[in-house]
């Protein structure tokens, strides 16, 4: 393989990858200078000129002419007068000799090594380009096609044939993809594994939901509406706190759209994830009330030292506040950054009810706390539920629930 073929093949690849000309020339020069150092031990007195467009290569060795008896005759940048006159008979001492070195002089093996080095540099350059491309897109939405489904991840291909990875943990639980499907996700991060860029995507990140809102709601994209915070339980429920600095714009209404047109597009992309859009406020109590929507809160007590909030609701609102699987109260706590405890507000007909704390001698405190987390703070509130309801709403074992029922029923029988 001669220099022309080497240069032209590299230049063609470089142009296909949008590599700038200076970088392309630098890599080529590095490869040829490595060959020179291998043969002559140094490249300091060599001039390398490359024309990538034409595939031309010129290598000149530059040496100063010294007397045959000079002490400097063995220096790398010196040549004896007698040797110089073999090249050109009218050379004189003190002049410089520009000796052209042909690629063939390095030998076939050296040229083959140069070719391998160039191939490796091409591969490294391709990896760097891929890494830099996606590093700049971290947090942005990309679309890619599914080409292989594995147990712990899905492999996707972008428009340029690059492999992207969507791990199981970054997929919405309800996601079901087949080969050839187009998938939207954000670039979550880019890792370097053994010199190879590994592009990780995510559909569970709150940033993915934020980018979807930017795509569907022009006011968010333009900055007229600010998304203050997003909390998600992917595929189940999300809460989005928004605000606008323009009093003429209703941030919640703009995000939802006419008859839900805007938010429906987001919900469909997230496998019917239930999205609550709430108006952000600095008023903590009002913020908590909005965060627990659709439940209607009767009263709130805030303990800023312990970062806990006690919320009191009518009995028929407790289950709404907690939500299916406890997601509503869990996400509300994350949104306001306080631990929320839900309590039933007793009415005049429930005065004979007994607070669960009163059973501290018979029921362990951690069990009482587990019940309170689901809004069950009195004996009757527990007894109105079935065993199956308690198994679903708490992490208690069946035997423990049976014992709780026995203790509570005994109280009222007495």
TrEMBL record:
The keyword Transcription applies. Residues 139-204 form the S1 motif domain. It is found in: Cytoplasm. InterPro entries: DNA_repair_Rad51/TF_NusA_a-hlx, KH_dom-like_a/b, KH_NusA_2nd, KH_sf_prok-type, NA-bd_OB-fold, NusA_N_sf, S1_domain, TF_NusA. PROSITE patterns: S1. Pfam families: KH_NusA_1st (PF13184), KH_NusA_2nd (PF26594), NusA_N (PF08529). CDD domains: KH-II_NusA_rpt1 (cd02134), KH-II_NusA_rpt2 (cd22529), S1_NusA (cd04455). Keywords: Cytoplasm, RNA-binding, Transcription, Transcription antitermination, Transcription regulation, Transcription termination. SMART domains: S1. Transmembrane segments: none annotated. Participates in both transcription termination and antitermination. Belongs to the NusA family. PANTHER family: TRANSCRIPTION TERMINATION FACTOR NUSA, TRANSCRIPTION TERMINATION_ANTITERMINATION PROTEIN NUSA. Monomer. Binds directly to the core enzyme of the DNA-dependent RNA polymerase and to nascent RNA. NCBIfam families: NusA. This is Transcription termination/antitermination protein NusA. It comes from Algoriphagus pacificus.
């Amino acid at each position: 393989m001669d220099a022309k073929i080497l240069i032209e093949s590299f230049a063609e690849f470089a142009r296909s990858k949008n590599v700038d000309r200076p970088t392309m020339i630098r890599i080529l020069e590095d490869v040829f200078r490595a060959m020179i150092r291998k043969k002559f031990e140094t490249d300091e007195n060599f001039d390398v000129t490359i024309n990538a467009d034409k595939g031309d290569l010129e290598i000149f060795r530059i040496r100063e002419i010294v007397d045959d008896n000079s002490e400097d005759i063995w220096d790398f940048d010196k040549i004896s007068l007698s040797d110089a006159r073999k090249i050109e008979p009218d050379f004189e001492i003190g002049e410089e000799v520009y000796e052209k070195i042909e690629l063939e002089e390095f030998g076939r093996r050296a040229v083959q090594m140069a070719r391998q080095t160039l191939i490796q540099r091409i591969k490294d350059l391709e990896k760097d380009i891929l890494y830099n491309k996606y590093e700049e897109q971290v947090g942005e939405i990309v679309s890619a096609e599914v080409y292989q489904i594995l147990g712990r991840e899905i492999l996707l291909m972008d428009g340029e044939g690059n492999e992207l990875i969507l791990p199981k943990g970054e997929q919405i639980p309800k996601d079901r993809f087949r080969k050839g499907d187009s998938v939207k996700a954000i670039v979550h991060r880019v890792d370097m594994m053994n010199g190879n860029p590994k592009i990780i995507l995510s559909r569970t990140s709150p940033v993915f939901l934020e980018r979807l809102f930017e795509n569907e709601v022009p006011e968010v994209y333009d900055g007229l509406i600010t998304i203050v915070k997003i909390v998600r339980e992917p595929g189940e429920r999300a809460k989005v706190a928004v605000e606008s600095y323009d009093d003429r714009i209703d941030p919640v209404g703009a995000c939802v759209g006419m008859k839900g047109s805007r938010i429906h597009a987001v919900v469909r992309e997230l496998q019917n994830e239930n999205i609550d859009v709430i108006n952000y406020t600095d008023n903590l109590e009002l913020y908590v009330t909005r965060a627990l929507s659709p439940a209607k809160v009767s009263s709130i007590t805030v303990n800023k030292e312990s970062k806990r909030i006690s919320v009191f609701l009518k009995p028929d609102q407790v289950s709404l506040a907690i939500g299916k699987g406890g997601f509503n109260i869990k996400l509300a706590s994350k949104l306001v950054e306080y631990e929320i405890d839900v309590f039933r507000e007793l009415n005049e007909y429930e005065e004979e009810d007994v607070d669960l704390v009163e059973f501290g001698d018979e029921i362990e405190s951690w069990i009482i706390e587990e019940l309170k987390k689901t809004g069950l703070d009195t004996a009757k509130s527990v007894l109105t539920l079935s065993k199956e309801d308690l198994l679903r709403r708490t992490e208690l074992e069946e035997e423990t629930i049976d014992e709780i029922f026995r203790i509570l029923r005994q109280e009222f029988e007495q």
